[in-house]
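User: Need the bound-state model for G3I:
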Amino acid sequence: MLTAGAVCVIVFLVVAALALILPDPDREPASELPALARSHGIDLGVAVAVNPLTHDSRYRDLVTDHYTSVTAENTMKWQYVQPERGTFDWSGPDAVVNHAGDHGLSVRGHTLLWHNQLPDWLAQGSFDAEELRAVMREHFGALMGRYEGRVASWDVINEPFEDDSPRLRENLWHRTLGEDYVAEALRTAHETDPEARLYINEFGVEGSGEKADALYELASDLLDQGVPLHGIGFQGHFVHGAVPEDLAENMRRFAELGLDVEISELDVRVPEPATTEDLEAQADEYRHVLESCLAVSRCVGVTVWGVADAHSWIPEWFPGYTAALPFDDDYAPKPALGGMIQALSRGRRAQPRATTRTMSGRR
Ligand code: G3I
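Assistant: Bound-state model below.
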């Protein structure tokens, strides 16, 4: 005979088990976006922050319901991964890569060489070329090695050009190793993980212009030298009203070199206060970006830079701007999400065109 206490425990366990199994009636239905993206053979990705990913189930649900890939917004950057020389912190990167693995999402690795978010020991250290090469090899070996087979592509070089000019940036790597640091880093990354797709990732190059031309020259030159460069990430941090019309045309010339291309950090910031009209026009801009990717046969994906406005980097970095992402501060979908759905529902995928060059690497 069961006691009343035992019956209570059993009832509690049954209710708890049902709560885990049955769908939550208040939960938004999973969207059609992942299937639509996959039907075109592209990834629809999102940049994620570790804290909400590990503590906020609604945030996690937005990621797994709407996207097919993730990028770590910060936690794979040098400052967090190797805060002291030879001391690595894998807690954040593991959380992102494990979440992706558990939900069938691919991972973009971001980022290996950048001038920002470096630890003090590196940014303020004085290294000769030989030692800096060793530092690079150690870091790539640890980070790429840990996630070999689980991180499909890496932003090996992030923002190699000056912010507003087509000149190669005077960063730590350039100063110490010379302008060949780009080729050296790509070769080192390729030796470390020969299967990974290796990218240069840049901003201000999405439409045609001097900086885009300089990137095109750099990419052509690297391919001529047989350097293992596989793709270009066009970041896509746009201002509402100024999204380049010629996005597809510009990406296509890189694709015709034999490179994959992608929009790697999409957001469209709106001046405050964001009106209903602004958000509807922003939806057209999101649609245009997705359509531009579909229009280029080697465009392999679009990644939005953040899950929801509540977590976006925009208000901190661009005071007076807001509402850059497809979900709002309360995680409710915005017209921009509809813009992406429209593009992927109606759009047709461009067919491959002959490339003028080939490069090493798989695909
Ligand atoms: O880590 C500290 C934490 O200890 C502290 O408590 C907190 C207080 O504000 O700040 C944390 O650091 C912030 C960091 O993001 C991690 O959240 C910095 O203040 C913040 O400035 C930093 O901003 C990041 C920015 O890169 C740094 O340059 C943005 O989140 C991130 O979205 C942005 O991402 C870059 C891409 O990597 C490359 N392309 C441009 C893009 C936008 O800058």
